[in-house]
Write a structure and sequence with these properties.
CATH architecture: Roll
Radius of gyration: 11 Å
Helix content: 10-25%
Number of strands: 6
Strand content: 25-35%
CATH topology: Flavocytochrome B2, Chain A, domain 1
CATH class: Alpha Beta
CATH superfamily: Cytochrome b5-like heme/steroid binding domain
Number of domains: 1
Order of helices and strands: EHEEEEHE
Number of helices: 2
Structural class: alpha+beta
Strand order of the largest sheet: 1-6-3-2
Largest sheet: 4 strands, mixed
């Protein structure tokens, strides 16, 4: 499968709202959090899907280790 490149504008469409999948970017990689219960409705502890959460994940109690379990959807182009 060829990975897709997402711009910030494209990523913002994957906000987990109105039937859209929920994607987040961390360190240039885009992950699908749609099937993670904690991300229901596209929100998780004040964070919103469709965004670059590279800085936010550093402040989270679980850190980046949780990303290993998520499907990679592509890369974020700035």
């Amino acid at each position: 499968m060829v990975e897709k490149s997402f711009t910030i504008a494209e990523l913002s469409q994957f906000d987990g709202q109105n039937g859209h999948p929920a994607y987040v970017a961390v360190d240039g990689t885009v992950y699908d959090v749609s099937n993670v219960d904690a991300w229901a409705g596209g929100q998780h502890h004040g964070n919103v899907a469709g965004k670059n959460l590279s800085a936010a994940i550093l402040k989270s109690p679980h850190g980046k280790g949780v990303l290993q379990k998520l499907p990679v959807m592509g890369t974020l182009t700035e």
